[in-house]
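Here is an idea for our session: we take a single protein and study its fold together. To get us started, please write out a protein record for me. Start from the sequence, derive the backbone structure tokens from it, and show both lines together. Go ahead whenever you are ready, and we will take it from there:
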Amino acid sequence: MTAETSQTLDRGLRVLKLLADTDHGLTVTELSHKLGVNRTVVYRLLATLEQHALVRRDIGGRARVGLGVLRLGRQVHPLVREAALPALRSLAEDIGATAHLTLVDGAEALAVAVVEPTWTDYHVAYRAGFRHPLDRGAAGRAILKARQGRTQDAGLALTHGELEAGASGAAAPLLGVSGIEGSVGVVMLSDSVSDRVGPRVVDAAREVAEALR
């Protein structure tokens, strides 16, 4: 800790991170051990976080992340979308295919930004808000590859017909962005993805990642 930082705020944020990393919640004693502070300090931290709905305690007294975190999280999407739009527009126009930014939302992939090309006669209609399982579609598969550390090819994923008959997809994960799991990709009406698309998608994902750092 430095003179410019708040020890109490730091501990509160550590509590949230610890709770976010468990599905079963943590007791006051468990949090006390993990934080290296006494139980009285933990009680005060939890009480403050509960007042802001960032933490809740179940009947058994285990602390869990509260619904207030979801409200904060919803405000992140517009900021991420705004940062990604320049790279997505360039990708869509260059490839002539619908470009998208997809983020993890629970066990699903959620498209939070979509840009369609302006010069093509036809293209795939892909809407922001579209959801699909992480293990289906190029966007989700790219995220899973990054999660598994399989990034020797920049995590590029190619698919055909998994989400829409006759459509192919290419996506690359956002790498090196703390706190965000996502991918940038394109979807097109074709039987396969041409050789030039993959590297271009990887470059776009890198551009978006740099904008978010």
Remarks:
- The mean pLDDT is 91.
